[in-house]
From TrEMBL:
InterPro entries found in the cross-reference section: Cystatin_sf (IPR046350), MS5 (IPR006462)
Entries under Gene3D superfamilies matching the protein: 3.10.450.10
TM region positions: none
Protein name: Cystatin domain-containing protein
Species assigned in the record: Asparagus officinalis (Garden asparagus)
Signal peptide annotation: none
Length: 206
């Protein structure tokens, strides 16, 4: 009676090396999103993970403004980061942001009517700022200027618009008049030229 021999193939050295390279120690896990610190040097693409100081600045800005005012972090790569996009979108996409701002006003009015309040009659005059967060697919943090047609007052408003792939479930969890600072800082708003902005990638998430 013959006995079949059982052979165990050795693990591929290339595969083993790759797995070893990506191993994360408990001390590193979380802070660098599960990849090694030296990956920046390996890829040499000019991008880097957020430093502790950058993460602190970002977190404080999000807590302070709910995501409507965050600093730019050039050459930073991070998942789910809220980033300013006003300087990197085309005139066509600027129109899309305006459409989302109007959607926010309409949705807010629907909620006001349900609660027995009067609608806000706002004429949006310009988009002051917009930040974006890649989610499902994108959350927009829009700051816009609008004129109240009932009182003739011009104010800035903030609206967070959560979009969905089919847009059926788009919603507006935040809509509010922007609080005016007691000591206004030097204006840092993005003034949009009449010919539009240079398109980086047109934010084509949909």
């Amino acid at each position: 009676m013959s006995t079949a021999a059982t052979y165990e193939l050795p693990e591929s050295p290339a595969k083993k090396a790759k797995m070893t390279t990506m191993t994360v120690t408990p001390q590193e896990e979380g802070r660098v999103y599960g990849v090694d610190d030296d990956e920046d040097e390996i890829y040499n693409d000019g991008l880097h993970m957020m430093t502790d100081e950058e993460m602190k600045r970002y977190g404080e800005a999000v807590m302070r403004s709910d995501g409507f005012e965050v600093p730019e972090f050039p050459n930073v790569i991070a998942l789910g980061l809220i980033i300013p996009i006003m300087n990197n979108i085309s005139a066509k996409f600027r129109g899309k942001i305006l459409k989302y701002a109007r959607f926010a006003v309409d949705r807010h009015n629907e909620e006001r009517v349900k609660e027995g309040a009067m609608e806000l009659h706002l004429d949006i005059t310009r988009i002051v700022n917009c930040n974006a967060e890649v989610s499902c697919p994108v959350n927009y943090y829009i700051t816009f200027e609008a004129k109240d047609l009932d009182t003739n007052e011009l104010d800035q408003y903030e609206a967070m618009v959560v979009t969905r792939v089919r847009h059926d479930d788009d919603n507006v969890p935040i809509f509010r008049k922007k609080t005016k600072p007691t000591n206004p800082p030097v204006p840092t708003e993005h003034v949009l030229p009449s010919h539009g902005l240079v398109a980086l990638r047109d934010c084509s998430y949909h």
